[in-house]
Write a structure and sequence with these properties.
The protein has about 500 residues and is of the alpha/beta class. The chain has 15 helices and 24 strands. It has helices spanning about 5-10, 30-45, 65-75, 90-100, 110-120, 135-140, 180-190, 210-220, 235-240, 250-260, 285-295, 365-370, 410-420, 455-465, 490-495, and strands at about 20-25, 30, 55-60, 80, 105, 125-130, 160-165, 170-175, 200, 225-230, 245-250, 275, 300-305, 305-310, 330-335, 350-355, 360, 380-385, 390-395, 400-405, 405-410, 425-435, 440-445, 475. Helix 7 crosses helix 8 (about 210-220). The protein is globular and about 65 Å long.
């Protein structure tokens, strides 16, 4: 039996009364309830006609019920498709049309706009689920027949599809198999030393790899507990740290914690591990955090397509600015544009291979083929170096991806929306340094005959794009700088508009 839920349930504690989730309102969910509730939710999905291999799309706020829906989807052998709650109707419509889900579950506040989209995409049912744990899905569960066990699956069957933005504009659905997710879960559990005594402070969203797969899977695979925060709150984190042993976060979590006066070694005395990922952690942040708390943040590196690839060690030297060596079972290499490996310490394209690497992009065979070498290595698109001890350092991105607050933003997607605005001739979207977010999304726009009002442009963009993708600043220019081949020189734009003085 290779159903992912079954694999996790085999790791549950013998005493199923042990707590799995403690919510912010004090309510708890034990491991016995994980099994019974996910079986009940699975019964709703089965009665809605969900079959193995069908997609179940979910765009809801973070809640314990949403986690149970994920596990229920695994139990029925379907493919889980989490959608960022910040995505607009335009973005969601694309995802639904592309993945053609059998069932869509959404927040009650957006149900009226989601229902016609879901119907057009062929979904048989649309359910609602609110952050308060109420909705039509929960109503259906009250009279549902729980499913028994879990549908038998094979390691190469899909467990999830996560959409990752593309440099050419539209998103790509990364297909993650049961083997991809399970292999990464047990590797991280063992490498980071998770056991049943751990309490994970969970303040991440659950619609992407970091919060859903890395964090929750480590807890499930070790029979641990998590304190489930609805969203990140630095002051609240400080209050909860004495009750936790592990925290995972994006760099912004740590910069905001450092801004709280009460953060010190005593506050963190019960903690055994702080982990950072989803964006580069500044060396200055790493050093200041260690000085204040005595803890060396463990930085790791992963992608939507691969889960985690490298990590600084649990026991051993953690190097600031490095994402550590390859995880057990994962191979990494640094190559030039021809695919030839470069010398130790020289920058080049980072490529990875292992059981964690996805099976391809949903319905994009040509794109999938472009991203893999003939020997199976996946081309990450990141520029990195590797030292003599195998420690990898990410030094840049071959693509113009921006990472803001831990979220990936691809300029082309935003540029296409800006360029469609009346009066805009051309735009270039860049990321500039930001102490809080890591990078700030910024647009440089050529317009004529009269530049549009920047505030009105931003207001319009908020209706078309998720909030974190909307430029925080728009600058108007007569012309965009280009090289001899006519390509916009974004490096020059970053130098010109990346000065901190522009944002004071």
């Amino acid at each position: 039996m290779s159903n992912l839920y079954t694999l996790f349930s085999n790791c549950f504690p013998k005493n199923r009364d042990e707590i799995f989730i403690e919510a912010s309102d004090g309510q708890t969910l034990d491991y016995a309830s994980v099994d019974s509730v996910s079986a009940l939710y699975g019964g709703v999905l089965v009665s809605a006609g969900v079959k193995p291999g069908d997609r179940v799309a979910l765009q809801v706020e973070k809640s314990p019920q949403a986690v149970m829906l994920y596990l229920a989807t695994l139990r029925v052998g379907a493919v889980f498709l989490p959608i960022n709650t910040a995505y607009t109707a335009t973005e969601v419509e694309y995802f639904l049309n592309d993945c053609e889900p059998a069932v869509v579950i959404c927040d009650p506040s957006v149900a009226s706009s989601i229902k016609p989209m879901a119907a057009s995409a062929g979904a048989g049912h649309v359910f609602t689920l609110g952050v308060d744990g109420k909705g039509s899905f929960i109503d259906s569960a009250s009279s549902a027949t729980p499913m028994n066990g879990a549908v038998e699956r094979s390691p190469n069957d899909l467990a999830a599809i996560l959409y990752t933005s593309g440099t050419t504009g539209r998103s790509k659905g990364a297909m993650l198999t049961i083997e991809n997710l399970w292999s990464n879960a047990i590797t991280l559990r063992d490498y980071w030393g998770f056991d049943s005594n751990d309490v994970l402070l969970h303040a991440l969203p659950i619609f992407h790899v970091h919060g859903l797969f890395v964090a929750i899977h480590c807890v499930l695979a070790s029979a641990a507990k998590m304190i489930f925060m609805p969203k990140y709150d630095a002051e609240k984190i400080i209050q909860l740290l004495p009750r936790a042993t592990v925290m995972m976060g994006v760099p912004t979590f740590y910069t905001r914690l450092l801004a709280v006066h009460d953060l010190d070694a005593d506050t963190c005395s019960n903690m055994r591990l702080f982990i950072s990922g989803s964006a580069p952690l500044l060396t200055e942040t790493w050093k200041e955090f260690k000085e204040r708390t005595g803890h060396a943040i463990l930085e790791r590196y992963g992608m939507t397509e691969t889960g985690m690839n490298t990590s600084n060690p649990l026991s051993g030297e953690r190097i600031p600015g490095s994402v550590g060596p390859a995880l057990p079972g994962v191979s990494v290499r640094i190559v030039d544009e021809t695919g030839k490996q470069v010398a130790i310490g020289e920058p080049g394209l980072l490529e990875v291979k292992g059981p964690n690497v996805f099976s391809g992009y949903w319905r994009m065979e040509e794109k999938t083929a472009e991203e893999f070498r003939d020997d199976g290595f996946f081309i990450t698109g990141d520029i990195a170096t590797i030292d003599k001890n195998g420690y990898v350092s990410i030094v840049g991105r071959s693509k113009d991806m921006i990472i803001t607050g831990g979220y990936n933003v691809y300029p082309k997607e935003i540029e296409e929306v800006i360029d469609a605005i009346a009066g805009v001739v051309e735009s270039a979207v860049i990321g500039v340094p930001d102490d809080d977010l890591g990078e700030r999304v910024t647009a440089v726009v050529k317009a004529r005959p009269i530049a549009p009002d920047s505030d009105k442009m931003i207001a319009h963009l908020k209706t078309e794009l998720a909030g974190y993708k909307v430029p925080k600043n728009i600058f108007f220019v007569d012309d965009l700088p280009r090289n001899a081949m006519g390509k916009v020189q974004k490096a020059q734009l970053r130098k010109t508009y990346g000065s901190g003085s522009l944002y004071k």
